[in-house]
């Protein structure tokens, strides 16, 4: 009964978050939401109930069919800490190492996802049901100290790999107005997952977009919206 109440509480919170994102989409609101869920993650970890976070992730998958990878940009505790690390590195002028070319192969994310699933099953059989999420949390943070966020978001994050499938045809997402776009490339440069690519004009790949709003913030001609 207690577990059901926890999941119902998480369901209510995530519905409220998606309403916030749908109607008042801005960076300041995102930061509040990110810190809220980071606090929830830390609380669940300290009380040995971090497995409840997986219920939140499953809800994120369901909502991603409509809203895209909103979970990644607004809710994921790994991404929240990575944001702060990246901002710190930028202020301090710390440069990233080049991502090894073999990690940029298309099959890398699926190999890592397969490994993560096998490791999760194996650890569960050993009675360690809560260990893989904290490991992913630490791995994502450590890598961000040395590499661009793209490495984790686009190639290694197992949760992001799953969401890249469910969000590929999301009804809502970041959209760039081709009539207003001046091809300045500012949006592509700040994208943490490199989901914005240039053709005749810039377009956004929904499967990799984190809905983090960085592109909206830097667009001087207001050509980018979440709709």
Query: Unreliable stretches, pLDDT < 50, 5 or more residues?
Result: none
Biggest sheet strand order reads 1-4
Could you describe the largest sheet, including whether it forms a barrel?
A: 2 strands, antiparallel
The span between the termini is 38 Å
State the share of residues found in helices, binned by percent.
55-70%
Explain the overall architecture.
It is a single chain. The protein is mostly helical. It has 2 domains: 2-13 and 25-166, no CATH class; 174-226, 2-Layer Sandwich (Alpha-Beta Plaits). It has helices at residues 2-23, 27-46, 53-67, 70-75, 77-92, 108-125, 132-144, 150-156, 158-166, 186-190, 214-218, and strands at residues 174-176, 196-198, 202-204, 224-226. The strands form 2 sheets. It has a two-stranded antiparallel ribbon. Strands 2-3 form a two-stranded antiparallel sheet. Helix 2 (27-46) packs across helix 5 (77-92). It is globular, with a radius of gyration of 18 Å. The model has no long low-confidence stretch (mean pLDDT 86).
